[in-house]
Amino acid sequence: MTLPETPVGRLRWAVADTRTLTGRALAHWARRPGEVAVGLLFPVMVVLMMGYLFGGQMDVPGGGGGYREFIMPGMFAMTMLFGIETTFAAVAGDAAKGVTDRFRAMPTSPPAIIAGRGAADLLHSVAALAVMAVCGLLVGWRAHEGAARALAGLGLLLLLRFALIWMGVYLGLVAKGPESVAAVQTLVWPIGFLSSALVVPDTMPGWLGAIAEWNPMSATVTACRELFGDPGPTGGSWAAQHSVLLAVLWPLVITAVFFPLAARRYRVMGR
To answer: What Gene Ontology cellular-component terms does the record carry (predicted)?
Structure first.
């Protein structure tokens, strides 16, 4: 096969291969519906557990619709964060089985290999957000500020997921196999819980609350609460007052760090 020499030709080649590899990932999920269903329903279980078992013991800042409305933006963001494990396992599994090396040996556009995984995982995240939104509506959550602001909040959630995809790709490429997912969970869970997703940072010790407020997760969660009109802390810190700005900047920073790292790691594999 003669590889394209012009920039337009290379772009078309990359787009076509990205579409093919995205379809490959989606086909894998279609053949394992049970595994996909469990992944989509796990956050629902957490919402029900936190909302109905522990929600009565929680003081909700700002009042509003209660603890379940308070945690829904947090669980939206947690679902995006948990997606790192899905990305990691898929990338590490392909690398361990030699699939990645076979792609490298074929006339496949190099950017398409990681872009295809990214596109598939982003589509999976859209489905996860849809499931979580239905769950939220059933337990009493509402977006009170209109459709435009609700869509903006969902956009920020997907922007966070887009950034975390490249972190998952990079970690999957440097890992020794999919069994290392336990190490990723050790990273993901503290990031998720050391935030404003499920609790108010003001209830933490001062230094720990400051870390939680500047957590990228907290920026997205706080911004979504503001855009949805859901109850949430009304802290006077700079991070709390500029949450929407931070919810855009943090994912851009994460992408700027991990996308080049993932691309470089892919280029040097097997050397």
So the answer is: ATP-binding cassette (ABC) transporter complex
Nearest Cα neighbor of 166 from 125, 117, 128 is 117
The two tokens of residue 21 are 């590899």
Residue 204 main-chain phi, psi, to 5 deg: -90, 165
Q: Cα 42 from chain centroid?
A: 15
Any domain includes 3: no
pTM of the complete model: 0.89
Pick the closest to residue 92 from 203, 207, 210, 184 (CA basis). Answer: 184
Q: What's phi and psi for 222, nearest 5 deg? A: -65, -40
The total number of structural domains in the chain stands at 1
Give first-to-last CA distance, the chain, whole Å. Answer: 24
Q: Is residue 234 part of a domain?
A: yes
Question: What is the per-residue pLDDT across 22-76, written as a single tens digit (0 to 9) for each?
Answer: 888 888 888 888 877 888 888 888 888 877 776 666 666 665 567 888 888 999 9
Q: Distance between CA atoms of 164 and 26, rounded to whole angstroms?
A: 19
